[in-house]
Amino acid sequence: MADDHPSTARLLRVRFAVVLVFVTAVLSFVTGLAAIGLESLDFSVGVVGVVPQVIRAAVSFTAVLTGFLLLVTAYALRKRFEAGWYLALVLLPLSALQGVLLVSALSVPLVVLSLVAIPGVYVNRSAFDREEWLSTSQQAALGALVGSLAYGTAGAWFLREEFSEGAITAPVDALYFAVVTASTVGYGDVIPTTSTVARLFTLTYLVVGIASFTAALGTLLGPAIEARFASALGTMTDSSLELLDDHVIVVGFSDLTEPIVSELDREDVPFVVITRHPERATVLRDRGIDVYTGDPSSEAPLHAVGIERAQSLIAATEDDAQDALAILTARELNPEVRIVAAATDADNQRKLKRAGADTVISPSVLGGHLLALSASGGDAEQIAARVLRE
User: How far is CA 31 from CA 20, 105, 159, 326, in A?
Assistant: First the structure.
């Protein structure tokens, strides 16, 4: 029970931060929408005139965007990504500032909750330690998208005199042109005139913008779509499989391997489970555990879960024949991997050793020794160490 306390406390800290950010996101979204659609929510305290109406109008739209970004942040925090923690500390003060600038009845809870959430997220820094939020290709695609939007915005702004009269009068108009062009929406309200320079710029931006926008959609959203299909089909995504390195492979999932999986998960040891039963894979996946559905005695599933890069393999399917085949295959694919096997039948311990297992443990023998020793008042830890040496 003592070992469960740090894990439980960490889970509670993560949930606390996620709830704070999620509620703030909803409030920011609702407050922004209310400010856009309603005009009579202001306090009559003489401070409304301090904030120009044009600024309040702009803030109402950005509050909606901030709310959406906070929802993304809450998801990142739920997955314990370090980047989500940093993003929350940037967006929460911004959300509070937007609430102040809106000066509306609904903005008070937004300001208060944003300020309360900042220390709530900050003190739980240690709970968010996952770094692999975006892959290198995703970072490159996102950078290309931002760069192309910057190019389109800057070009449209500097060439604003060459576009439709009065179409671009502020930097936000140039950004509007960049977004609708790159996304291929093209409302037609901002177009280049007869100027050759403006038309050439638009042609180059069409190529750069559409290419970067399409690449970003495929790279950033592709893994999420792939994960949905993988979840439905009971397999891991290729990107998840590629991240496995120096990990533990658990062959089979049953009452015997449940404590093994729980212990590895609690100790944050990277591992993956191979099972041939889709329903068991679904149970594990719902718990957030990496699982691959396939026959563990075949080469393809072991290759897929990175047997060449694994530090060890645990064979415990409750079927000694199945375990022996999995051990033989794993040893052939990676002669250096450490293999630990659980013998359901104590008579099969030597057979599993000959198959290639480094260590073979019989849960029934170990349990019998421990029970007998405990009943006689002996030291259970000593007998456990002796059985493991054997």
Answer: 16, 9, 36, 58
On whether both 251 and 303 belong to a single domain, the answer is yes
Q: Give residue-wise pLDDT tens across range 265-305.
A: 888 888 889 888 888 888 887 777 888 888 888 888 888 88
CB 293 within 8 A of CB 276: yes
Statement to judge: residues 140 and 121 lie in one domain = no
Measured over the CA atoms of residue 148, residue 154, residue 160 and residue 161, the dihedral's sign is negative
- Does residue 304 sit in the same domain as residue 325? yes
**Domain of residue 322, residue span:** 238-389
Query: 35 and 163: one domain?
Result: no
pLDDT at 3: 41
DSSP reduced 3-state for 157: helix
Please state whether beta strands 271-275 and 359-361 pair in parallel, antiparallel, or not at all (unpaired): unpaired
Q: Which amino acid is at 113?
A: L
In the chain, the number of structural domains is 3
Task: Look at residue 253 and tell me whether its pLDDT is greater than 90.
Answer: no
109, 127, 145 — which closes off a domain? 127
Strand partners, 292: 274
Q: What digits encode the pLDDT tens for the residues 148-197?
A: 999 989 988 888 888 887 788 888 888 888 888 888 887 777 888 877 88
Q: Where are the beta strands (DSSP E) in 236-308?
A: 248-251, 271-275, 291-293
On whether both 253 and 327 belong to a single domain, the answer is: yes
Instruction: State the pLDDT at residue 45.
Output: 40
Residue 339 and residue 310 in contact, taking contact as beta carbons nearer than 8 Å: no
Q: List, in order, residues 6 or more apart from 148 with CB less than 8 Å away.
A: 178, 182, 205, 208, 209, 211, 212, 213
Q: Pull the structure tokens for residue 212.
A: 């970067």
- 């359901």: which residue's tokens? 344
Q: Report pLDDT digits (tens) over 78-126.
A: 877 888 899 999 999 999 998 888 767 778 888 999 999 999 899 888 7
